User: What shape does this take?
Amino acid sequence: PAPSVITIANFTFAAQVVTVPVGTTVTWVNGDDVPHTVVAVDKSFRSKVLDTDDRFTFTFTRPGTFDYFCSIHPHMTGKVVVKAS
Assistant: This one.
C-alpha cells in the first residue's frame, strides 16, 4: 500500500480521519511551531515529542479503528481506519 501522511498544523491533525488498507505506513509531520505527540487511545503506538518538522511513522498491520490524540493538547484528536485488504 502507498504510504499516507497526516500533517499537524494549527493544533489539528489533517486529515482528521484517514482510511487505509492493512500494511500501510502512516507518517505524521509536525508543521506547527510548538511540540505535539501522537498517542493511540489503545496504546498500540506512541510518538516521542515532535518538534517542528519532526516525523513519526507507524505501520498498521491489522484492521481496526485507531483513535489517537496529542498528549500535550488532548483536544487534538484523529482516527486511522484500517481496512482488511
Q: What stands out?
A: The beta strands are 4-9, 12-14, 17-21, 25-30, 39-40, 55-59, 64-69, 77-83. The mean pLDDT is 97. The first strand starts at residue 4 and ends at 9.
